[in-house]
C-alpha cells in the first residue's frame, strides 16, 4: 500500500481539534503519516497536538510562528513523504473510509486527483446539510476546472480531495491571499492533472459552519484577492478556452454580488458598493443572466432549468408560427437556416442567454397581428416558462441553483 500524507494546519481550534485528529487516527487505511502544522496557536491546541503525537507514532507535529494557513500547508507539503496528499482543516472531521475511498478513486481510475462529497454541519442547529449535487465520473482537466469554477458539483477548496504528490512539484499556496488561495492552488494543480475522478455520492468530509469564519464576515480587502484572481483567470483564458473563460466570468460576478450583499448587510462604504457594482457591469451580458438567477434563488430554482424552459417555448413558438402563417418558399428556407444557425450558436458558444435569440425569427410571423394578442401571448409564454422551470427543478431533472437552502443556512448562521 502506498504511503499517504494527511496535512492538518492548526490555529486556535482547541474546541474542535480532538474530534478532527481522532477521525484521522481511526482511518481504515493505516499506511498514513499525519503532519500537524501548528501555526503559532495561543490556546491549548499545541498541547492537544503534543498529546496525540506521543499517542500515535504516525503523527508528526511541526510548530511554527503564526504565518497563516497557506504557509502552514506549504510547510506540510515540503515535509510530506507520501505518494498522495490530502488536506483536512482542523475544525472539520472525516469519515473512517475517507482516505481509503479517495485512494481507490485515484488508483482504480488512474487519476491524479480524486474528489469526494462534503456535508456541512452546524452544531448550533444540530443539523447536517448535504452540499452538492452528486456525480460519479472521470473528468478531463477542462471539465474539472469548469466544475470547480461553477461550484455546483464541488468547491474550490483543497479539502475533500486527494492529490498525487508528483503534480504538486513547485506549486505552493499564495501566502498573500487570505481568500481565494485554494482556488489559485487548485487551478495550477488541475492544469497538470491528466484526469480527475469525482464521486460526490460518497459524503466523506464533514465541514463545520463556524460563526467566526472569515468567509462569512462583512466585506473587506481580503475578498479583493479572489476577485482579482478571477479576473486573472478570465484574462488568461479569454483567447485559449472559451468554456473556462465563461465560467470564470460567472464566478467573478457571483463573488462580486456576494460582496455587495455583505457590504449592504454591514452598512458599509458606498465607494465599495459602487466598485463592486462596476465590476459586475463590466460583464453585463452575463450579469443580466445572473440577475435572473437571483430572482429565482429563493425558490431554489436552477437557472439552467430556466434556460431549457426558454428554449422549449422558443421551439414551440416556431411550431405555432409555421402552422398559422403563410410563407413563401424563399421565406421558409430563410427561417429554417436562421433557426439552425441560432441553435448552433446556442450549443457551441456556451453563452447561456443566447437562447433568448430563438424568439427573434418569430417577429417575421407577427405581420398583421393585433398588439393585444401579442401582449397576451407574451404573458402566457412567461407563465409557461416559470411553470416549466419550477417543474424541471423540483423534479430533480436539473441541478439546483448556485444558492441552495444549505447556502442560505450558512449565510444566516453568525
Folded structure, characterized:
It is a single chain. This protein is α/β, with parallel strands linked by helices and 414 residues long. It is built from 14 helices and 10 strands. The chain has helices at 17-25, 45-55, 69-79, 98-109, 141-150, 181-192, 222-237, 242-265, 270-281, 284-297, 303-324, 329-349, 371-394, 405-412; strands at residues 4-10, 32-39, 59-64, 84-87, 93-94, 113-122, 127-130, 136-139, 161-164, 196-208. Strands 1, 2, 3, 4, 5, 6, 7, 8, 9 and 10 form a 10-stranded mixed β-sheet that branches. Strand 2 (32-39), helix 2 and strand 3 (59-64) form a beta-alpha-beta unit. Residues 287-303, 344-369 and 396-414 have low confidence and may be disordered.
Quick summary:
This protein is an alpha/beta fold. It has 14 helices and ten strands.
> What is the helix content?
40-55%
Q: What overall geometry do the principal axes of the alpha carbons give?
A: globular
The counted number of beta strands is: 10
Radius of gyration: 25 Å
Low-confidence stretches: 287-303, 344-369, 396-414
Strand content: 5-15%
Element-level helix/strand string = EHEHEHEEHEEEHEHEHHHHHHHH
The description of the largest β-sheet is:
10 strands, mixed
> What separation lies between the terminal Cα atoms?
43 Å
| Average of pLDDT | 77
Please tag this protein with its features.
414 residues, 14 helices, 50% helix
SSE topology sketch:
Elements: E1 4-10, H1 17-25, E2 32-39, H2 45-55, E3 59-64, H3 69-79, E4 84-87, E5 93-94, H4 98-109, E6 113-122, E7 127-130, E8 136-139, H5 141-150, E9 161-164, H6 181-192, E10 196-208, H7 222-237, H8 242-265, H9 270-281, H10 284-297, H11 303-324, H12 329-349, H13 371-394, H14 405-412
Parallel strand pairs: 1-2, 1-4, 2-3, 6-10
Antiparallel strand pairs: 4-9, 5-10, 6-7, 6-9, 8-10
Helix pairs in contact: 5-6, 5-8, 7-8, 8-9, 11-13
